[in-house]
Amino acid sequence: MGFAEEKQLEERYVMPTFARKDVEFVSGKGMYLTDASGKRYLDFLSGIGVCSLGHCHPAVVRALTQQAEKLIHVSNYFYIEGRGEVAEKLSGLLDSGLPEQEREGWKTFFANSGAEANECAIKLARLHARRVAEARGEDADAAPSRIITLVKSFHGRTLATLSATGQSKLHHGFEPMPEGFLPTPINDEAALERLMESVGASVCAIMVEPIQGESGVHPCAPEFLRTARRLCSETGALLIFDEVQCGIFRTGRPFAFQHAGVTPDVVTMAKGIASGMPAGACAARGDLGDTLQAGQHGSTFGGSNLACAAALATLRELDAEGVRDRIARVGAHLQERLSALPGVQNVRGCGLMVGADVPDAPGVVARALAAGLVLNATGPETLRFLPPLICEEDHVDEAMDILAAAL
Ligand SMILES: Cc1ncc(COP(=O)(O)O)c(C=O)c1O
After folding, report:
1. What is the rounded CA–CA span in Å between residue 391 and residue 326?
2. I need a labelling partner for 201 at 20 to 30 A (CA). Which of 177, 278, 363, 385 fits?
3. 200: Cβ below 6 Å to ligand 1?
């Protein structure tokens, strides 16, 4: 079937929830994609931060092919080959860089997406607060249940994660929203302290993205994260880091929070974890990993044989020697090249998660696409760069030449 026919079918039968670009990619290798007409594109979006190892990395293709020939899915009623290994690997990566006394090991719930990983974190935080109240002989129904989130955050499109998302424009039309989420401005310690002072007794968690992605790459200052940690420790609330976009080596460390030296209680992840196989994960530190018991949370597909095979192959490749340094080095080169382009302002980010402001970002994205570079605009004046983590300086130079012309 040709592209014109495919397009017609999608327009007729697929809900128009995304303003799709006029391209259909049919194959990919490493940093490059090819469309239905045979035209090649350099990919600086990687499926929205998903294809960490680039397209069709041989280790992932091998793992998926071998697994698909053996077993694709059996459900969570049973043990799953490789899943314990993925969870062990995540636990080690999460613990790495933490102070010795805080390395307690992590237990993971496997989901299929970032929103689902966050749903798990929200349920876990509320249940934990009830358990604490019960243990103290208090009324569990009156246990803290509110969650502080950040203005301009993004946590997903399910109703609870949308409610947690501090962008009221995204709530519009879907009210009533689930209650209990309180947005506060990013990097405003005084506002966070005031909020905790007034409502802290009803708060079971603070949930933040260490680097906001969908809002256009806005990092939390280490001091702000440290304040959130202190307030959680003082009140018994859990500190949840949503690392769905900034986690899994995107910033040159396994998780973005590791740059700030702040220890969270719960970390959610998805996107880059399994190279494009749908997978999400919610990991909880130490005893918190036993909060959700049989019957209290679940998923039919989460942590399937296929997803675990892809995740294991992905994590092994990303954890190889030299990868972290390369991501940091190439990310710095990207920021340097971007900053030198006329009309580009406020270059920001960490590793290979970079944002910058330009006039008419959607127009720039369209012109770049026509010239063979895949980019994304998170807003009318913001470009976001999320290249595969295999990106090298040469790719950055090629992308910047195309971008310069598109600007
Ligand atoms: C920080 C963050 N959390 C959650 C999500 C939702 O993830 P998903 O689309 O996989 O449900 C996203 C998606 O962009 C995200 O960036």
Report:
1. 8
2. 177
3. no
Any ligand 1 atom below 6 A from CB of 94: no
Q: Residue whose CA is closest, atom 8 of ligand 1?
A: 114
The type of residue at 326 is R
Q: Are residues 296 and 204 in the same domain?
A: yes
333 and 249 part of one domain: no
Range 395-401, long-range pairs (CB < 8 A, 24+ positions):
395/31, 395/42, 395/330, 396/330, 396/333, 396/334, 396/337, 397/337, 398/42, 399/42, 399/44, 399/373, 400/334, 400/337, 400/338, 400/341
Boundary residue ending a domain (297, 318, 339)? 318
State yes or no: is 29 an active-site residue: no
In a domain, 89, yes or no: yes
Q: How many residues does the chain have?
A: 407
- Tell me the mean pLDDT in the region 145-160: 98
Tell me the pTM: 0.98
CATH code of the domain in which 175 resides: 3.40.640.10
In a 3-state reduction of DSSP, which class is residue 283? Answer: strand
Cβ of 276 below 6 Å from ligand 1: no
335-384: pLDDT as tens digits: 999 999 999 999 999 999 999 999 999 999 999 999 999 999 999 999 99
The band of 205, judged by pLDDT with boundaries at 50, 70 and 90, is very high
Q: Is 338 in the pocket of ligand 1 (CB under 6 A)?
A: no
Query: How far apart, in whole angstroms, are the C-alpha atoms of residue 332 and residue 262?
Result: 23
For residues 94, 100, 105, 111, the Cα torsion angle rounded to the nearest 10 degrees is: -20
- Asked whether residue 385 falls in the same domain as residue 333, the answer is yes
Residue that finishes a domain, picked among 269, 297, 318: 318
Query: Is 154 a known active-site residue?
Result: yes
Residue 97 pLDDT greater than 90, yes or no = no
292 and 385 within one domain: no
Domain count, the chain: 2
Give the residue whose CA is nearest to atom 4 of ligand 1. Answer: 155
Domain, as residue range, for 340: 3-57+321-406
CB 155 less than 6 A from any atom of ligand 1: yes
Whether 327 and 300 map to the same domain: the answer is: no
- Is residue 257 located within the same domain as residue 327? no
Question: Can you tell me which atom of ligand 1 is nearest the CA of 161?
Answer: 4
Specify whether 257 is catalytic.
no
Do 125 and 254 lie in one domain? The reply is yes
Q: Are residues 289 and 197 in the same domain?
A: yes
